[in-house]
Write a structure and sequence with these properties.
The complex is a heterodimer.
Chain A (H helix, E strand, L loop, with lengths): L4 E3 L2 E4 L5 E6 L6 E8 L3 E9 L2 E5 L6 E5 L5 E5 L8 E8 L9 E2 L3 E5 L1
Parallel strand pairs in A: 2-11
Antiparallel strand pairs in A: 1-3, 3-8, 4-5, 4-9, 5-6, 7-8, 9-10, 9-11
Chain B lengths: L3 E3 L3 E5 L4 E7 L6 E7 L6 E7 L4 E3 L3 E6 L4 E6 L8 E8 L2 E3 L3 E6 L1
Parallel strand pairs in B: 2-11
Antiparallel strand pairs in B: 1-3, 3-8, 4-5, 4-9, 6-7, 7-8, 9-10, 9-11
Chain lengths: ~110, ~110
C-alpha cells in the first residue's frame, strides 16, 4: 500500500458527461501529480500541484481541469468526455516540488467512456 | 519540455540472466533520473534514481547507468527473477515525466 488513495477505482460513463476523480496523497506529501495511462500512450503527465498551487502542466486537455484543496487532496475533473478519454488515471504524491523526492502512486481509477 | 523514450517496447529474458533496459532522454534539465516498475494492475513503484552528476548507482540487484554525453540511461537487473516481470519506465524529474515503458518478460 503506497498510502495514496484514489477513488473511485472504476468509473463507467457516457460520452459528453463529466466526472471527478479524487486523490488523497500520503500524509505529509505536498505535491500531487496526475497521469493518464492508455495502451498506446504510456504514462502521460497531466499536471502537478504543490501545496495548493499549480506547479507544472503537461499534456492536459482544456476539457480537463484539476485542483488541490487546503487539506491537500486533489480532484481531476474531466468534462465533455469522449471515447478516447477511456484510460487509467493515476495520482501520485511526493513531499517536495522540484527537489527530487520519491513519488508514490495510487492504484488508479479506470475510466471507461461508452 | 522533458521527453524520454525507450529503445525497445518489449524484452524477454531467461530467468537467472541479467536484463538491460535502455532509455533515451532529450531534455537535460532534470536533476534526477528515476526508474519505476509497474506490475499488472498496480500503480508504478519507485526502483532507483540517479542524480544527473553521477554516472552509476547501484541498488539491490539493480544498477542504473547514466551517460550524459549521449543522453542515455539504462537499468540493469542482475539474476532476473519471475517477479521482475513488469513494465519499466524511466523518468526525468522536472517535472516527473515518463517514457512509454519497456515490458520485461522473464522466461522460467
Amino acid at each position: 500500500d503506497s498510502g495514496v488513495t484514489q477513488t473511485p477505482k472504476h468509473l463507467i460513463t457516457a460520452t459528453g458527461q463529466r466526472v471527478t476523480l479524487r486523490c488523497s496523497p500520503r500524509s505529509g506529501d505536498l505535491s500531487v501529480y496526475w497521469y493518464q495511462q492508455s495502451l498506446d500512450q504510456g504514462l502521460q503527465f497531466l499536471i502537478q500541484y504543490y501545496n495548493g498551487e499549480e506547479r507544472a502542466k503537461g499534456n492536459i486537455l482544456e476539457r480537463f481541469s484539476a485542483q488541490q484543496f487546503p487539506d491537500l487532496h486533489s480532484e481531476l475533473n474531466l468534462s465533455s468526455l469522449e471515447l478516447g478519454d477511456s484510460a487509467l488515471y493515476f495520482c501520485a504524491s511526493s513531499v517536495g516540488q522540484t527537489d527530487y523526492t520519491e513519488a508514490f502512486f495510487g492504484q488508479g481509477t479506470r475510466l471507461t467512456v461508452v | 519540455g522533458e521527453s524520454v523514450g525507450l529503445h525497445l517496447p518489449t524484452l524477454s529474458v531467461q530467468e537467472g540472466d541479467n536484463s538491460i533496459i535502455n532509455c533515451a532522454y532529450s531534455n537535460s534539465a532534470s536533476d534526477y533520473f528515476i526508474w519505476y516498475k509497474q506490475e499488472s494492475g498496480k500503480g508504478p513503484q519507485f526502483i532507483i534514481d540517479i542524480r544527473s552528476n553521477m554516472d552509476k548507482r547501484q541498488g539491490q540487484r539493480v544498477t542504473v547507468l547514466l551517460n550524459k554525453t549521449v543522453k542515455h540511461l539504462s537499468l540493469q537487473i542482475a539474476a532476473t527473477q519471475p517477479g521482475d516481470s513488469a513494465v519499466y519506465f524511466c523518468a526525468g524529474n522536472t517535472p516527473l515525466v515518463f517514457g512509454k515503458g519497456t515490458r520485461l518478460s522473464v522466461i522460467a
